[in-house]
Specification:
About 45% of the residues lie in helices and about 25% in strands. It is an alpha+beta fold. A hairpin with a 2-residue loop joins β2 and β3. α1 runs antiparallel to α2, α2 runs antiparallel to α3 and α3 runs antiparallel to α4.
């Protein structure tokens, strides 16, 4: 019996390897491998919606890798635009007091370091496409709901329990422009 997390874990490195040797394989072998292994893995992975979770992040990465490898736009679309996906954006939340003039933020850099290996990190460069303050009468609820979703996901509490009196959250919608990695996990 297959499991979506297992499929997701082996699919990404398998696709990378396949990409290296694809052109050396006869057309019939390529078609069979893509149909019986990659597309079948995408079917298994795509049938499970793990919600807002680390599992879903692995699912999305595997679906994206497979979709690009086999040239299937629908699989790529599912990885990027399916339920609980960010549609290609990164969302960051800040307390209003840390953002003097949030409407002037344009370029951002996010760096994440592996806590078990400080020589393994990823840096994401991006442009802020949209800034939403909680006080915005039309879209402010998105900032509130976003921080509450994260609290529920990571500390199993809703609403976010560490809010200071009078605190206002700001939601930054960031379009990645470049991703740089360094080191082995």
């Amino acid at each position: 019996m297959s499991q979506s997390l297992t499929e997701s874990s082996w699919a990404v490195p398998l696709v990378f390897g396949y990409d290296l040797v694809r052109d050396t394989l006869p057309a019939a072998e390529r078609e069979r491998f893509e149909r019986e292994v990659l597309r079948e893995a995408a079917r298994v992975i795509g049938a499970v919606d793990a919600g807002k979770s680390n599992w879903q992040a692995r699912h999305n990465a595997a679906l994206l890798a497979i979709g690009l490898a086999v040239g299937d736009g629908e699989v790529v679309k599912k990885a990027i635009d399916g339920a609980y996906r960010s549609r290609g954006y990164i969302y960051a939340f800040l307390n209003q007091e840390f953002t003097e003039k949030p409407n002037h933020v344009v370029d951002v850099t996010i760096q994440i370091t592996n806590p078990e290996n400080p020589y393994h990190w990823v840096t994401i460069y991006g442009k802020v496409d949209e800034i939403i303050e909680e006080s915005d009468p039309q879209n402010g609820h998105l900032a509130t709901e976003g921080i509450d979703d994260l609290a529920e996901l990571y500390i199993q509490q809703r609403p976010y329990p560490f809010r200071s009196e009078g605190e206002e959250r700001v939601l930054f919608k960031i379009a990645p422009t470049q991703i740089v990695t360094f080191g082995a996990p």
